[in-house]
Amino acid sequence: MIFADRVRLPVTFDGDRLAEDLERISGATWVDHFVKQNYEGDWSVLPLRYSAAATHPIMQAYSDPSVTDYAYSPLLDTAPAIRAAIDWFQCGLQTVRLMRLAPGSIIKEHFDHDLAAEWGAARVHIPITTNPQVEFTVNRIPVAMEAGSAWYLRLSDPHSVANRGTTDRVHLVIDCITNDWLTEQLTLAS
After folding, report:
1. Can you name the residues that pair with 149 across neighbouring β-strands?
2. Could you tell me which residues come within 8 angstroms of residue 172 by beta carbon, excluding any fewer than 6 positions away?
3. Sheet with 39-40, side-by-side order of all strands
4. pTM over 0.90
5. pLDDT tens for residues 150-183?
6. Using CA atoms in the order 100, 87, 139, 187, what is the torsion angle rounded to 10 degrees?
7. Taking Cα atoms as reference points, which of 160, 176, 143, 158 lies closest to residue 8?
8. Does the pLDDT of residue 61 top 70, yes or no?
9. 112, 116, 142, 115: which is closest to 130 by C-alpha?
10. What is the dihedral of CA 177, 183, 184, 190, to 10 degrees?
11. In terms of C-beta density within 10 A (0-12 exposed, 13-18 middle, 19 or more buried), how is residue 82 classed?
C-alpha cells in the first residue's frame, strides 16, 4: 500500500496541556541537532525515548533503526499529556523527541533515506508550539499543522522547514514501526 506524502491522523491532542508539559520540562538541556549541514540557526532536540545504551544526549537524539532496547526519559514523569500522546500509538516505537526550531531558523531541503510507512518506518509530528509564520513543506508543498494535531509525513521525500515567526516551533516527533494498527490509522485518515 502506498500512502500520501502527508496524512493527518484521526486524533487531536490537547494543545494547551501539551504546551503546559513543554513549559515544565523546557529547562532541561536541549542538544543542537547533530546534522549541522541541514540547517541554519537554532534547531535543537530534547530526547524523550532513546536507546537504553545511549548515555550521551547526541546519541539519545539519534534514531538508530538497529536499536531494540529503549528507555524513557524521567522528564516524562512531569509531562503527562506528552506521555499520553506517546502512549496513544499502538505500534512499535523507536526514538521519541521534542524538536525545537527557533525563530529565524531554517531546516534546508533534504530527505531521510528510510522514513516511509511503506518501507516500515513512519515519522509522526505533533506540533506543540507553532505560529502562522512556520512553513513546513513536503515535496515543496506546505503542510499546515495546528498544535495538537498528529501528522504522518513521508520524510524520505524532500522536505524543509522555515520559522519566520517570533516564537519557537516545537514538535513532538515519534518514530514508529509500521504495523496493522498504524496502517489502519493512515487509511482511516486518507
Report:
1. 12
2. 18, 48, 82, 85, 86, 96, 97, 98, 125, 126, 128
3. 39-40, 106-110, 159-163, 134-138, 141-142
4. yes
5. 999 999 999 999 999 999 999 999 999 999 999 9
6. -160
7. 143
8. no
9. 142
10. 130
11. buried
* Best CA proximity match to 152, nearest among 27, 7, 48: 7
Please state, in angstroms and as integers, the Cα–Cα distance from residue 78 to each residue in 48, 73, 103, 147, following that order.
12, 10, 26, 20
Question: How many CB atoms are closer than 10 A to CB 60?
Answer: 22
C-alpha distances in Å from residue 6, one per residue of 23, 40, 152: 28, 24, 6
What cell was used for 18?
501539551
Computed over every residue of the chain, the mean pLDDT equals 93
3-state helix, strand, coil in the chain (%, to 5): 25, 40, 35
Q: Indicate the SS3 state at residue 1.
A: coil
Q: SS3 for 183? A: helix
Is beta strand 39-40 parallel, antiparallel or unpaired with respect to 31-32?
Answer: unpaired
Q: For residue 41, which amino acid is it? A: G
Lowest mean pLDDT among 85-94, 111-120, 139-148: 111-120
